[in-house]
Amino acid sequence: MAEPAPGVELRICPPRGRIDLRGDPADPAFPTAVAGVLGFELPSTPNTSRSAGAATVLWLGPDAWLIETERAMEAAVAERLAQALPDLHCSVAAVGDGSVAFSVSGPRAADVLAKGMTLDLDPARFRAGHCARSLLARIPVLLHRPGDDFIYEVTAARSYSEYALDWLHDAALEYGDAAGSS
Amino acid sequence: MTGQPYRLAEGGAIDRSRPVGFSFDGRRYTGFAGDTLASALLANGVTLVGRSFKYHRPRGILSAGTEEPNALVQLGTGARGIANAKATRVELHEGLVASSVNCWPGPRCDLGALNDLAHRLIPAGFYYKTFMWPHRGWHFYERLIRRMAGLGRAPEGADPDRYERMNAHCDVLVVGAGPAGLAAARAAARGGSRVILADERGLPGGTLPDAADTGRLGETTAELEDLDNVRILVRTTVTGYFDHNFLIALERVTDHLGPHAPAHLPRQRLWRIRAGRVVLATGALERPLVFANNDRPGIMLASAARAYVNRFAVLPGRRAVVVTDNDSAYGAALDLHRNGVEIAAVVDLRRNGEGGKPAEARAAGLQILAGHAVVDSRGRRRVRTAHVARLDDDGSLTGPVRTLSCDLIAMSGGWNPAVHLFSQAGGRLRYDEALRAFLPEGAPQAVRCAGAINGAADTASCIAQGRAAGAGEPDDRAAGRVEAASRAPWAVPARNRAGEGRRFVDFQNDVTSADIALAAREGYQSVEHLKRYTTLGMGTDQGKTGNVAGLAILAQTLGLAIPEVGTTTFRPPYDPVTFGAIAGRDVGRLADPVRRTPIHRWHEEAGAVFEDVGQWKRPFYYPQDGETKHGAVARECLAVRNAAGVMDASTLGKILVCGPDARALLNRIYTNAWDRLEAGRCRYGLMLGEDGMVLDDGVTACLAGNRFLTTTTTGNASRVFAWLEEWLQTEWPDLDVYLTSLTEQLATVALAGPNAREILAALTDDIDLEPDAFPFMAWREGRVAGLPARVFRVSYTGELSYEIVVPAGDAMDLWTALTGPEHAVTPFGTEAMHVLRAEKGYLMIGQETDGTVTPLDLDMQWILSRKKDFIGRRSLARPAMRDPLRKRLVGLETGDPATVLPEGAQILAEPPSGVPEAMIGHVTSSYWSPTLGRSIALALVQGGRDREPPTVHVPLDDRTVRASIRDPRFYDPDGVRMNG
Amino acid sequence: MLLIPCPWCGARDESEFTCGGEAHIRRPADPDALDDAHWADYLFMRANPKGSHRERWCHSHGCGRWFNVERDTVTHGIVSVYRMGEPPPGGDGS
Amino acid sequence: MTRYSIFSLARNAMGYHRSWPRAWRSPQPRPSYDIVIVGGGGHGLATAYYLAKEHGLSDIAVIEKGWLGGGNTGRNTTIIRSNYLWDESAHLYEKSLKLYEGLSQELNFNIMLSQRGVLNLAHNEHDLKELSRRVRAIRLNGIDSEILDPQGVKAEVPIANISPSLRYPILGASLQRRGGIARHDAVAWGFARAADARGVDIVQNCEVTGIDIADGRVQGLETTRGRIAARKVGLVAAGHSSVLAAMAGLRLPIESHTLQAMVSEPIKPVLNSVVMSNTVHVYVSQSDKGELVIGAGMDGYNSYSQRGSFQIVEGQMGALIELFPIFSRLSLLRQWGGIVDVCPDASPIVGKTPVDGLFINCGWGTGGFKATPGSGWVFAHTIARDRPHALNAPFALERFASGVLIDEHGAAAVAH
Ligand SMILES: Cc1cc2nc3c(=O)[nH]c(=O)nc-3n(C[C@H](O)[C@H](O)[C@H](O)COP(=O)(O)OP(=O)(O)OC[C@H]3O[C@@H](n4cnc5c(N)ncnc54)[C@H](O)[C@@H]3O)c2cc1C
Ligand SMILES: NC(=O)c1ccc[n+]([C@@H]2O[C@H](COP(=O)([O-])OP(=O)(O)OC[C@H]3O[C@@H](n4cnc5c(N)ncnc54)[C@H](O)[C@@H]3O)[C@@H](O)[C@H]2O)c1
Ligand SMILES: Cc1cc2nc3c(=O)[nH]c(=O)nc-3n(C[C@H](O)[C@H](O)[C@H](O)COP(=O)(O)O)c2cc1C
Ligand SMILES: [Zn+2]
Prior knowledge:
The structure holds four protein chains of four kinds. Chain A is α+β, with helices and mostly antiparallel strands. Chain A folds into two domains: about 10-15 and about 100-175, Probable tRNA modification gtpase trme, domain 1 (Gyrase A, domain 2), CATH 3.30.1360.120; about 15-95, Heterotetrameric sarcosine oxidase (Alpha-Beta Plaits, 2-Layer Sandwich). Helix content of chain A is about 20%, strand content about 35%. In chain A, α1 (about 30-40) runs antiparallel to α2 (about 75-85). Chain B is of the alpha+beta class. The relative contact order of chain B is 0.07. Chains in contact: A-B, A-C, B-C, B-D, C-D. Chains A and B meet through β6 and α4 of A and β8 of B. Flavin mononucleotide sits at the interface of chains D and B.
């Protein structure tokens, strides 16, 4: 029997900047100040992301967001946020080193993830701009679908990243796993 | 014919152009693609397939499906062996190797059959009544009995195959792709729902007896296959129905391909399905009749006989007696007849063999013996004769017994709707007198039933019910029901009082109607007692064919109505599930996640031995050139004491605590006070559970006014984070604090030893390391080795020590700089760290503490604030916590300095005098101290350091060691070194 | 396998959650005012009913929020879900 | 009581087993008893038996809401051992094991006690230290226990995978040779038959729905078969203890959780010991019938449903296959759950309650089958004498207020 056509492509995403942002969305000053820095509003719908320019913000919880930026921008954005929010009760922490993102793409991408995730990954439900923290196998991850195409980003804690990649490759075996890590 | 004497020349759904060679019990045979092992064996005239569990009775093939109790085989060999495969479910592939189970030397002649001769001595539950003499005799008997245990054999090696698990979601899950299921799937799909349709067979179409209808179903199947919103899973048994419409299904992906399976595919896949609604269209399973010697090879279910001729073009026999208590077997009789099987008679237990079906049979020239029963059979390896007698209205036998010669008895004792999954879902069953069956009634979950599972017997009503269920339309479950015989006895009476000729109810476990009566007589009258006393329904088939007859016979014996007796509990799985498939890929390399620090590679290359701490891999020690563990640890310790060492402490938990109420939170969580900790300073903290027991410890630094960085132990990192969050969210939502875990973001390297300052000085130019400028328990920000870092002057080793914290991405650079040859720094592992801290008398969470130790027990009153409340404080006020006899932490010094006590050694006040000894404590930590050149130990001992006299005794395997209690600080008790 | 409706994220699989036991047990404001027996009540004694049970769950592998669930301990049916600090829909949260 | 023996079996075989007497009567409940035991599990039946036998009492009823032995007694993995860490537990469980060793003869009912040895595996340094502590304590309590290295494990359990490259390798084990398994149903039936023979009324299908208390003293019970007066009442309802306590206005430090177990298809003998692992959460033995009897962890939420979550089974299977690679191709035949009554310190409560004449025996959680005879023995003593025996005195309800808990979490980290 012929080798199956590559149905999945796995890639390690280049390092990126990440900022863990906490604050009270009910205090109007907070979202306003953040929007002032980012140039757009924080997503308030659970499990969605919003992005513009070089920044993407993912909803993590009712008072928690993850801001993704270019690697080189992390410190600067964190600094600007901290300055924009001086008197507010909030928390800004650079966490870009703490995790590694993988991109899982191709026609069988969702199937590879579904082997380890209980989220409903139906493209009509987990739509572009959706994100969710959940478990992949036994690893806590953040899943994000940035656009309409079948590209998913899986962000795992740094200590789990080798295992996570190993797991993903193994899961992709049956669909043909193009390109190893890059 | 290719040596398949019982194969028809045409018909059936097999592919005669593809002969398939296989072997059974060492002999080679040929079947066709599309055969099951059972159909291929029958085609070759093999009827004796194995032996039963208890009596080792010769057994053949009873059914054509999942319900098979008899035809179990050992499949494959070596590491790929499979025990107890159902021949009726094994799809034939080239090179298949199978053999009988539970017989020696073989199924034709089996020594175990001695049990059959002794059967009178070993009725149900006999083992409870004997083997009790002499007193310990059971040890001996058990060994003999265990030899008889089990059916098939476990494989001989690790499993070479892969298994997958897959999560799936759907709006409608349809179980069963017979007429009802296909109709349900189509209706649901047309309505736009996401549908999964699963069937255990290789093709959709169900058990439809009539080939003509199969074509129409083919159209439905084709339509479904074209739809994007439908996923059809074949060879997929839905086998467990759990809470909140979660179901599991086992897909046999490559089992049917044997050695030709493509390597990239898993052997099996376990589906984990979350369904909005479930439609169960699982059909019905035919029941055997209970008569004497109803278990011989060649006696099979009528529906099975029919399936073998129609589907597989196999004659299950050449001359058949068909015996039934309902109409359905007439179809089988006619199909057998049409295909050339001589029908010796259709024996109908019902008085009047009238109605459409019998008339059709009569018109075809079949002899019908209405009001008769098969009462016995003869034939060893294959049935030879059926014995038929008249059955009276009152259920007794009258008149002469006629002997009909035959090589097949096709029987039907009615139908059991396949309500297993429905019942697993929590659904209630109702006994239907007319149908003599348990039918689905109300269910607490979103589940509907359609087709034969509701008692519908004709295809049209099955389809109608399926359509309605799929579309979510009103339920007409009553449609299409055909009443079975009402008064036929559940067990045909025995011919004589002696009860000769056992009447089997559970074929696999050899449970007879007499066993059921015996259980009832002895008081095992609940159906659950019956099951456990007789093992009825406890075999690999879980009583799919026998259970209802069994409980009916119990009801009859007790004079109760069947619903009063009820069924036993239906449990997952519906059909056995491979362990490997349940584990999926959580085995071997992927068995559990491995967590690695950013410096892991370096440790590996340096030859570190790793220790598992939770999921982390931590360097335990770094042996050099053949060093033993002892040697390496001693070298590492001395290096720290005399020069400098570095340790990867990145696994420690780190939590950013920030907000106006951060101090308030720390005050409530930790036992000590945090009001006055200034930016730039650190403090050690201890936290308790609300029960007063020590939970965790660690250092917290004030980063700025209300920003703190708290560290936790490695093992408790996530637990402590969760603990703080829980209090904040559930009890103290008024506190304005945000927590962020920085465990993964920050890496920590501990640099310890008298040379530490000097080394660090060489690597930083913007941190003033002078003791006055940077005292013990302070922290500074700056660049170390050119990297932005926070340096904490804390010490767990008792030496001058700095913990350098950098973003994880910089950790390798930092480590490389520190371990550069110019610094002569020795990497040390967790074991050296344990020794060094024990020399200082520092506690280690999880070693000195075990969830039963309070700070009072650790003589840590100094850390308990008196000015505030904190979690666990009130519990410490219970009188028992201050009991002077509680075990408290001490140092222990052995009389002989060379003796290292084993950790966990128990401590006695007096030399041992005979068990039971009164133990007064145990050794919590114990090491050879290379620094002191002697052994040291920490222990928890009643009375602690107040104990008089301070001498205790530690019994070891071969001797007892005397030791004396002392201050646990063995080394530098005043902390001169780390403060310096 | 429970399907638990997180008040923020919607229905998610049980594996993402942690159960925190009986809800509405308040930490005594002044622990010293309690005698040992009453303190033990707070620490250890639980209603453990057969039937409707109000309990705390945390969406620990999701949004991280704690919330309350009213669940039947026999059928496992979830009757209601409400956020921390909110009164139980059925009333009487004491 | 007709004595069971090979001779009676042979004699009855000649009569086609038509004249075996009932193992126990099925009496109507009388309006009043001296002592009523609520709960016809092993512990309740043993209590009744020892009340009759050791204390000469006979006006006793056991009230069971379903069929006797149908609670946890009928659904546990049957592991018996006495290798407990703390003295209090060791003494109680050892008493029980000693009673077990003579139980078949005492009850004249073969409970098939199979002392094939129980191994507790260690998978990391911490486990090894715990093991050392435990084994030493146990031995000093006069109970047999030994430590095995990986080769020793292999010698006892040839199919175990002792490869050091396992994710959680087997680094060693403790072994209690006198530990083993017994036929769980037979324990219930044997006690029932022997208690019945001593005049105890065992009333099945009778649910206690209320407890009458007047003047701080128990007066009797409301049941689905009418009111039953009693001078003393012992509650032995395992998973339902809180429900019964609530009828007496008491709250217990107990939560009820589902604990799951399962069996494989029967296979020829491959495993001759009981193997347990706290760290990877699995325990397994092979029954005399050939099925592997496997225990899993406890569900994390309160439940009275006897149904658990499948993820528990999945986790446990991975661990099982790691330890025993040849099990991978075997099949799961049946899985089920029981409702276990878990105490905060993983130790039982056996003693008096604040209500006069009302006694309680519960909290055995995941590990009380091994305690069945011992628990019945001390509880009978407590009820008959109105004060605990020295063996169960430490297990009083009051310990939760005093704080003198007997924390056996180490021993019970894995449910067994
Ligand atoms: C899956 C599983 C595995 C286990 N494995 C082990 C093991 O390997 N080793 C071990 O030692 N222990 C094990 N245990 C624990 C052990 O089974 C129990 O601790 C022990 O059987 C408890 O016995 P019991 O007689 O107290 O309770 P049960 O047998 O549960 O009896 C209590 C009885 O009370 C009845 N009852 C309840 N309410 C009422 C009422 N209102 N009126 C009348 N009757 C009532 C119940 O119907 C029940 O029959 C396991 C438990 C489970 C669930
Ligand atoms: N009394 C009678 O005469 C009688 C009795 C039974 C069936 N029938 C006939 O059989 C047909 C019944 O139609 P139907 O659609 O209700 O049933 P069916 O038997 O045709 O189809 C049920 C299908 O479900 C599959 N199945 C069962 N349990 C399963 C599980 N757990 N997982 C996956 N697949 C599973 C079966 O293998 C089968 O393919 C009708 O044509 C009817 O006439 C007649
Ligand atoms: C030690 C032990 C062995 C068992 N062996 C079998 C078995 O061989 N076959 C079987 O079907 N069930 C077996 N069971 C499970 C019982 O059928 C049943 O599921 C269990 O007692 C729980 O009862 P329930 O399922 O009726 O609720 C066994 C149970 C135990 C406790
Ligand atoms: Zn959530």
